[in-house]
């Protein structure tokens, strides 16, 4: 295992020595995780005209765990290059 790590690091260093910063710009990495998803109302959506003497409208709380989505993010040395949400039941493909 250590020998494989050393070989990989040596290869990366050789690429950097040959290509310089262009090599660093070509590196992309990513992460993925299941996240809770919900759409809270914005302030304008939640405003409702009522008369001063009328009781205020009832609000229902949105549960944060209403649904989960699979979140993937990819970035390079300049920042995020791709973000994607995948709903349950969908699959990841090359597109």
List the helices and strands and how they pair.
Blueprint: H1 2-19, H2 21-26, E1 29-37, H3 43-46, E2 67-76, E3 79-87
Antiparallel strand pairs: 1-2, 2-3
Q: Indicate the structural class.
A: alpha+beta
Please give the order of strands in the largest beta sheet. Answer: 1-2-3
Q: Which stretches are low in confidence, meaning pLDDT under 50 for 5 or more residues running?
A: none
User: What's the assembly state of these chains?
Assistant: single chain
End-to-end separation in angstroms reads: 33 Å
The Rg value, from CA coordinates, equals 24 Å
Q: Helix amount, in percent?
A: 25-40%
Number of strands: 3
- How many alpha or pi helices? 3
Quote the beta fraction.
25-35%
Mean pLDDT: 80
What is the overall shape?
Answer: elongated
- H/E series: HHEHEE
Query: Biggest β-sheet, characterized?
Result: 3 strands, antiparallel
């Amino acid at each position: 295992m250590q020998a494989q790590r050393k070989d990989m690091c040596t290869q990366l260093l050789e690429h950097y020595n040959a290509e310089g910063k262009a090599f660093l710009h070509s590196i992309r990495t990513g992460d993925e995780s299941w996240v809770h998803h919900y759409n809270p109302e914005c302030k304008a959506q939640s405003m409702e005209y009522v008369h001063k003497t009328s009781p205020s409208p009832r609000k229902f709380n949105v549960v944060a765990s209403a649904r989960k989505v699979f979140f993937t993010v990819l970035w390079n040395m300049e920042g995020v290059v791709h973000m994607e949400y995948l709903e349950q039941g969908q699959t990841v493909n090359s597109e």
